[in-house]
Specification:
Number of strands: 0
Helix content: 55-70%
Number of helices: 9
Strand content: under 5%
Mean pLDDT: 86
Oligomer: single chain
């Protein structure tokens, strides 16, 4: 929940926002805040301006389809981890296309062991991709374990 939402929910007076804000910050940001000149923290408007000046570049509000096209599965990254990372990025799209348009992009960005199994199945929803992807991951893990079991040490 946002700082403002929490303050409103707790009934804190607007005039106290400036002095309660640092309590919501992590230690590094809190240290930055307490080192500001008093003029920069006298009103809530001053605090917002100082905070955005310091941390505004860290805010990424949206992602683009191009960002998704560049989001590749890491060589050692499992299916579930990549799927979760992809879905988090989809949530940041300002206008999300339907699954049947996004699923092929997702599959194209998967590592070869997954991509070669998924690309010709005609999957059109992320639910279907997830179901099949879990099965592929299980088979890949079993295959690796069987290979290891067959080695003599």
């Amino acid at each position: 929940m946002s700082f403002l939402g929490m303050m409103e929910m707790k009934g804190v007076e607007h005039s106290l926002y400036a002095c309660t804000f640092p309590l919501s910050l992590d230690p590094t940001a809190r240290s930055w805040f307490y080192n500001l000149d008093a003029k920069q923290t006298s009103t809530w408007s001053d605090v917002v301006k100082a905070f955005l000046t310091q941390y505004g570049d860290n805010i990424e509000l949206t992602t683009t389809l191009r960002d998704l096209e560049l989001l590749k599965q890491g060589e050692e990254e499992g299916f579930i981890d990549f799927f979760s990372r992809w879905r988090l990025n989809i949530a940041l799209l300002s206008q999300r296309p339907p699954d049947h348009e996004l699923v092929p992009k997702f599959i194209d960005n998967m590592s070869p062991p997954y991509k070669c199994h998924l690309q010709y199945l005609g999957l059109d929803t992320f639910q279907k991709v997830y179901t099949v992807g879990i099965l592929i991951e299980r088979d890949l893990i079993n295959e690796t374990m069987n290979h290891i079991d067959g080695l003599d040490f």
